[in-house]
Amino acid sequence: MDEVKVVVAHSERVTLRVGDVFLKVDGDPARLDAEAEAMAAAPVPTAPILWRQPSVIAFGALPGRALGRLGEPSPASPAAWAAAGAAVRTLHDAPLPKRPGRRADSLVRAELESECELLVAKGLLPADLVARNRAVAEAAFRPFTPVFAHGDLQLSHVFTDGDRVTGVLDWSEAGHGDPMFDLATLTLGHEERLADLLAGYGPAADLAAIRAWWSLRSLLNVRWLAEHGFDPFAPGCEVDVLRSRMHSPAS
Questions:
Q1: Environment class of residue 6 by beta-carbon count within 10 Å: exposed (0-12), middle (13-18) or buried (19+)?
Q2: Where exactly are the transmembrane stretches of this chain (predicted)?
């Protein structure tokens, strides 16, 4: 009998694995509609959709294995990372989808300012660590040309077999977006693999913006993760990402 494994669970959505089938349950059915639409439009391999109900979607498992997990060394080869970079570039070069997506704008800036104040006031992070990463994060607030962005391109969402990308999971945040956000999300906590990724992605990567998104994403996520049963203080995770900026270039 196949066991039911909880892949991720929080108040907005739950993803379960039963054998070779993944079930995603979302409190907002519109997100599942948007995810299915993005998967259909994406010019890269995705998981097969087996069936859908209003608040549930079932996916088939992907061959190969994920590039890795946050907080753990990536088992993937440089060639696999380069293949992932090439796949991301193919996505970014595709026609824009209908759905608007994530971007760094005045609303995100206001959210960041508020979150930085809370992180210090609640004693979650020291003021100097927050201030340094807030300064680094400023480079994300820049003009850019929107692309077809995945929007949540964690390395556990990209599967490879050898040097071939077999599929990309979790398209619920896909839409118009900053290409550097995708690259930063994929290498969060794995800065040492950025060169391998960019070998496949090609030119036009903005390193300052990638570093900025590492800081910005981590600052915005630390408190939420801590309050929802995750551990951003675990080795290699968000707080370590913030600490790594203390003695590195701001741009």
A1: exposed
A2: none
Q: Are 241 and 188 in contact (CB under 8 A)?
A: yes
Q: H or E element: which one contains 136?
A: helix 127-137
- At 212 the pLDDT is 96
Query: Residue range 96-123: average pLDDT?
Result: 86
Burial of 14 (0-12, 13-18, 19+ CB in 10 A): middle
Single pTM value for the model:
0.92
Pairing of strands 175-177, 164-168: unpaired
> What is the C-alpha to C-alpha distance for residues 207 and 224, in angstroms, rounded to an integer?
26
In the chain, the domains with their CATH numbers are 64-244 (3.90.1200.10)
Q: How many CB atoms lie within 10 A of CB 202?
A: 13
Radius of gyration over every alpha carbon of the chain, rounded to an integer in angstroms: 18
For residue 26, give the H/E element and its range. strand 21-26
State the pLDDT confidence band at 36, using cuts at 50, 70 and 90: very high
Take residue 66 and report the two structure tokens written for it: 């994920």
**What is the widest separation between alpha-carbon atoms in the chain?**
53
Both tokens assigned to 80: 């696999």
Q: Let me know: does 54 contact 94? Beta carbons within 8 Å.
A: no
| Planar angle of CA 217, 218, 223, nearest 5 degrees | 115
At 103, the pLDDT band (50, 70, 90 cuts) reads: low
On the question of pLDDT at 102 being above 70, the answer is no
**H helix or E strand, kind and range, residue 226:** helix 207-227
